[in-house]
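Summary of Year 1 activities. Much of the first year was spent building the evaluation harness for sequence design. The harness presents a backbone, in tokenized form, and records the residue chosen at every position. We chose the following record to illustrate the format because it has been used consistently in internal testing since the harness was completed.
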């Protein structure tokens, strides 16, 4: 039986020491910049050096998370960080951005690479392709079943890292645009505002529609070890040192002594997380959603308010310095409170001394931390000194190599459709390319020998979905192989690994799900023989104007997929719509077994066409996905684009207000 690495989060120095004492084989952490947990304390380069020196004493591996997407203007700062990190003893760098991959492979090749879960790898194609590109390890999606993981392990030699404990996102990591849509705080930039933990209105009832329980796979450790998984990862860089220590001890025991699983599981009772689920690896997702998004150990309800604070009855021990979470029975008005002092009344009930006027009778009180054990909050050594800035001449040379200009000679219009019914509504003579992305059922019905399609074969791109489960790889490989034999050569991919199932000599385009936030990413796509690419949906105008290569396709009309999830969710409204507290409307759609959430109104950037033309851009995408097939609707959108006017009602996503 394989003994995998136990990998723990280190959001600060205390958490690192807790992980070491708990029995971690490795830790992962972020710097102050470019990591997907910006709200953690994180580390400076000097602090990282001290941590690495301490880790060396304990033979602990250290993985650095540089797992956000990078804007063009951030490339100079990124190069300084890569230069500094390349001089350290870091074990590997965890990345999401393809531009970052390009820079590391070409200019800092001594750094080992791990593919972040935000890269969207979810099948054996992802494993095989990542290995081909030189990645040491892939952190696969949390949504995979036991059978899918076994298949990936059998077909690929790449190291597999698996999340075994901690919070779960409702959407696939790297595919969530909800936080970005609500206020420009992008999950792909480390600033997620957790919209899946919010309440929504469904038929006038307020509910937690998308809040998942926490992942816990302690009972499955023996079978996971038998599968040959390389690393078992605990989520939680925003958690406490006590959490890290307790969880590390539990999984250390389970890995080293599988016969003591039950004893190990008892240690997790006080991990101060949410309710637990084994999720997809456990084989049953029924009950994975929760109406209680609170973390912590439930202490009781506020029974009485006093001049000094409030009274509750609890059997759980509390201490000075404990932190409490307090929320109303309906899940609103959540508050954080640190216990500075407390006492007991004559009946043995606890009196928490607090001056907070927000607390009300019947509020629910949760213990957020245990404070049973203290850990050092510093490092005893500063580590070796390194150069923290890349020499100016070398930096300039790299940046100049990325700044190759490129413009479109004439305006080109791309149109995406998601239904066969659209084919008779689109006048092919008015568009340059049609992107066809159908549900599986309609792919089987599509007649590519029909006159209309055959006549316009050179204009058509067949597009692959964002998520292809392991069991459907053969279907898509066979489908597009058949199209290739019938003379079709244009294909659009949603993940670079999908190149592996396309016919030879294809013209390959990458859609907006292959993130191109910077010029370095464009160079990587060129190297991978991608002929066309799309800019991301959550892009902003300033970043777009920073690009030297203007040949990408700009989505100017679309319904962004805010959540893209394998997890079903129940919406009682007959039209599958729901609203948030600001009365914005959203809709749930089921497609190819996926749950997709889109806003009630589209994003329109058609009003920027003239400005974009002036800047050298010229390829535009009208995405008719989630629109009812109508030639009138198509011509309305097309006319607005030609006139450089906004379609109403609509919004501009992050384009004008900016992406943080």
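For this record, the design step produced the sequence shown next.
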């Amino acid at each position: 039986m394989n003994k995998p690495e136990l990998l723990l989060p280190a959001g600060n120095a205390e958490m690192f020491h807790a992980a070491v004492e708990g029995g971690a084989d490795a830790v992962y952490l972020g710097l102050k910049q470019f990591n997907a947990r910006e709200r953690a304390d994180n580390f400076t380069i000097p602090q990282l050096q001290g941590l690495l020196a301490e880790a060396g004493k304990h033979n602990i591996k250290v993985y650095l998370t540089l797992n956000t997407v990078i804007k063009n203007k951030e490339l100079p700062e990124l190069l300084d960080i890569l230069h500094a990190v390349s001089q350290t003893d870091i074990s590997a760098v965890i990345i999401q951005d393809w531009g970052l991959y390009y820079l590391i492979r070409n200019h800092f090749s001594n750094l080992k690479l791990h593919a972040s879960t935000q890269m969207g790898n979810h099948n054996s194609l992802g494993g095989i392709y990542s290995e081909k590109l030189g990645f040491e390890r892939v952190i696969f999606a949390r949504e995979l079943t036991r059978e899918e993981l076994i298949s990936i392990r059998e077909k690929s030699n790449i190291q597999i890292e698996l999340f075994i404990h901690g919070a779960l996102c409702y959407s696939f990591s790297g595919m969530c645009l909800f936080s970005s849509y609500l206020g420009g705080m992008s999950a792909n930039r480390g600033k997620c505002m957790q919209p899946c933990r919010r309440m929504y209105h469904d038929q006038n009832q307020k509910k937690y529609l998308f809040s998942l329980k926490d992942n816990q796979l302690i009972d499955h450790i023996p079978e996971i070890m038998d599968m040959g998984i390389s690393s078992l990862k605990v989520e939680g860089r925003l958690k406490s040192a006590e959490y890290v220590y307790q969880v590390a001890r539990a999984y250390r025991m389970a890995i080293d002594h599988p016969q003591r699983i039950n004893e190990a599981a008892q240690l997790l009772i006080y991990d101060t997380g949410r309710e637990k689920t084994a999720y997809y690896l456990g084989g049953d997702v029924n009950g994975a959603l929760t109406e209680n998004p609170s973390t912590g150990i439930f202490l009781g309800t506020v029974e009485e308010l006093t001049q000094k604070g409030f009274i509750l009855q609890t059997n759980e021990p509390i201490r000075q310095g404990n932190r409490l979470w307090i929320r109303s029975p309906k899940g609103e008005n959540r508050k954080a409170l640190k216990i500075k002092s407390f006492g007991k009344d004559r009946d043995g009930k606890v009196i928490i001394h607090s001056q907070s006027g927000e607390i009300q009778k019947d509020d629910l009180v949760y213990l957020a931390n245990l404070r049973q054990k203290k850990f050092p909050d510093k490092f005893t050594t500063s580590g070796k000194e390194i150069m923290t800035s890349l020499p100016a001449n070398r930096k300039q040379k790299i940046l100049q190599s990325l700044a190759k200009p490129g413009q479109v000679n004439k305006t080109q219009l791309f149109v995406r459709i998601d239904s066969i019914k659209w084919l008779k509504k689109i006048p092919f003579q008015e568009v340059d390319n049609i992107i066809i992305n159908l549900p599986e059922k309609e792919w089987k019905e599509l007649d590519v020998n029909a006159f209309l399609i055959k006549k316009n074969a050179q204009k058509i791109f067949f597009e692959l979905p964002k998520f292809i489960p392991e069991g459907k790889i053969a279907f898509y490989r066979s489908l597009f192989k058949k199209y290739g034999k019938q003379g079709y050569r244009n294909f659009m991919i949603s993940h670079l690994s999908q190149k592996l199932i396309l016919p030879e000599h294809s013209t390959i385009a990458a859609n907006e799900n292959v993130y191109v936030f910077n010029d370095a990413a464009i160079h990587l796509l060129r190297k991978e023989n991608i002929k066309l690419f799309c800019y991301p949906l959550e892009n902003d105008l300033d970043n777009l104007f920073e690009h030297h290569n203007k040949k990408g396709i700009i989505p100017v009309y679309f319904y962004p997929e805010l959540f893209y999830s394998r997890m079903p969710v129940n919406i009682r409204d007959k039209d599958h719509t729901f609203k948030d507290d600001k009365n914005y409307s959203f809709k749930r759609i089921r497609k190819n077994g996926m749950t997709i959430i889109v806003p009630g109104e589209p994003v329109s950037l058609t009003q920027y066409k003239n400005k974009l033309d002036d800047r050298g851009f010229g390829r535009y995408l009208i995405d008719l996905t989630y629109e009812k097939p109508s030639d009138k609707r198509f011509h309305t959108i097309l006319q607005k684009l030609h006139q450089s006017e906004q379609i109403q009602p609509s919004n501009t996503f992050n384009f004008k207000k900016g992406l943080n």
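DSSP finds 18 helices and 33 strands in the chain. Quantitative recovery figures across the full test set are reported in Table 2.
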